[in-house]
Write a structure and sequence with these properties.
Distance between the termini: 38 Å
Structural class: mainly alpha
Helix content: 55-70%
Low-confidence stretches: none
Strand content: under 5%
Order of helices and strands: HHHHHHHHHH
Radius of gyration: 16 Å
Number of helices: 10
Length: 203
């Protein structure tokens, strides 16, 4: 963990800002703006880019992916710029929580993969790039987004240590556990052999 240099008030403020940014439901907003219907009634009902892709619109999925990643990165960069590294890591965790449990949607959000990648790109871009490459390789080999996400999360702390970001190790472990928790249904389907492939229209 980084040194706790920020005041309690600053940490609370940046946690709140991080959560607020993270809770912006880009998937739902993009789907509505592009006339794709209610995302909750499509595919798995999830608000992330993988489910947006099930609408058949690659552009909408890309915009969702970029939006969800950007909000995690923005939370980190703002907190780091105005406070410090301790606030940046707390804002990162809060942004992830905001995406997964947004108050605006009754705490029923997404699984946080794009936000996870975005915040890591802002926290330490070499680690973020390594996570992106891990996700891409695992997803391409398996043709399943969940396998890419779980593999990338599992390797994220290894990349953090290997690339000299040990101060983010505790945060990385917490985020990895949360990614696995959010994907528990996917893990069950993978074990059962019923997990859909990328782009499949069914849940």
């Amino acid at each position: 963990m980084p040194p706790l240099d920020s005041s309690t008030a600053q940490l609370v403020l940046w946690a709140a800002i991080g959560y607020g940014l993270g809770s912006i439901p880009f998937g739902i907003l993009v789907a509505r703006l592009m006339g794709l219907g209610n995302l909750r009634e499509i595919g798995s009902g999830n608000i992330g880019a993988t489910n947006v892709l099930r609408t058949g619109s690659k552009l909408a999925a890309l915009l969702t992916l970029l939006g969800d990643g950007a909000k995690g990165a923005l939370a980190v960069l703002l907190a780091r710029g105005f406070a410090g590294e301790d606030a940046a890591q707390l804002a990162a965790l809060a942004a992830f929580a905001g995406h997964c449990w947004p108050v605006w949607l009754g705490f029923r959000g997404g699984k946080g993969v794009a936000t996870f990648i975005g915040l890591w790109l802002a926290l330490a871009w070499p680690v973020g790039l390594a996570i992106c490459a891990t996700w891409a390789a695992a997803a391409a080999l398996s043709r399943r987004s969940s396998v890419g996400a779980l593999t990338a999360a599992a390797f994220s702390t290894i990349w953090a240590v290997f690339l000299g970001q040990g101060t983010a190790l505790a945060l990385g472990i917490v985020l990895t556990l949360l990614v696995f928790w959010r994907h528990r249904a996917n893990i069950a389907r993978l074990r059962a052999g019923t997990e859909p492939r990328i782009g499949a229209r069914d849940s």
